[in-house]
Amino acid sequence: MEKKAIYSNAKFVALIATVCCLLWGSAYPSIKIGYVLFDISAEDIPSKFVFAGYRFVLAGGILLLAARAFSVKVFSVSKSDLGRLLILGLAQTTLQYIFFYIGVANTTGVKGAIMNATTTFFSVLLAHYVYKNDRLTGNKALGCLIGFAGVILVNFNSDLLNFSFRFTGEGFVILAALVFAVTAIYAKRLTRTLDVVLVTGYSLLIGGIGLTVLGAAAGGEVTHFTPASSGLLLYLALLSSAAFTLWNLLLKYNKVGPVSVYNFLIPIFGAILSSIFLGEEIWELKNLVALILVSYGIWRVNREGFRASRREDAARRHPAGMEQQQGRA
């Protein structure tokens, strides 16, 4: 009970969720810097896949080793479960990051961070048709509309007269977001019978192997290993393993709403860090407005679950007071 009390503490949730979003947001400039450090040109798609593959093989391996250290039976997976994990890894990691790495290479870090936030809106729309207890409400619909408005706005030039959208750039980032939203539903089903860290670790490892094999078969390679480039690759791997582990820890002891409400921070951190490390322009009015619209949209679609969880927490802490309030109502 003491551990649950700590992990369910609102300040603890806010701190850890913010750290996770900061890590995920830092991936946008880190990937683009990685292309430079490993001397991977914009046209060298196969090498981008190998680069991504190395990252996720490392991330998956780290997670599975961590799970093993905490007595999770990493190798005691049935053939049927292994088949499901294979499907998840190839879809959620290999397919998603085929789109993501190409898309990020063909757009700015600021735009990529904002465009990828569509994951939340796709998830809300899909949940309406998959889960009976997660229907699309007026607030959620409005949040999606506001968020998509921000996504559309960021694709206009600074004069707001010309629309700039590249299918293999911004379009691929959106496709990556859609693939993740769809496969997240499949992953959620797997976690009913399998450990969450186990599912995540195998997904990253299998998907990373798929990306590496695909890229190598097409002639891709990753060279120029230096202390700087190797350190960045290790950081990207640790970023994925640490953020997923911390996030899943929060989800284990809290409802989804109070945790996922912090997703609005990912495009904010992604845009700010891209501005700092890549020198990209973030202070254009349309970028700021788009960032605000997307962030507000993400917050709005999650706020119902966040408020409901806060009411339940208050009821557990002060049951008598809640009964009195309900009596007066």
Q: Which structural traits does this protein have?
A:
disordered C terminus; 0% strand; 329 residues; globular; single chain; 14 helices
Secondary structure: elements and pairs:
Blueprint: H1 2-7, H2 10-37, H3 45-69, H4 79-105, H5 109-116, H6 118-130, H7 138-153, H8 167-190, H9 196-217, H10 227-253, H11 256-260, H12 265-278, H13 285-317, H14 319-328
Helix pairs in contact: 2-5, 2-10, 2-12, 3-4, 3-9, 3-10, 4-8, 4-9, 5-8, 5-12, 6-7, 6-8, 6-13, 7-13, 9-10, 13-14
Describe this structure in words.
It is a single chain. With 329 residues, the chain is mainly alpha-helical. The chain has one domain. It is built from 14 helices and no strands. Mean pLDDT is 79; it is low at 321-329.
Number of helices: 14
- Proportion of β residues? under 5%
Report helical residue fraction: over 70%
Poorly predicted runs are: 321-329
Per DSSP E runs of 2 or more residues, the count of β-strands stands at 0
Distance between the termini: 32 Å
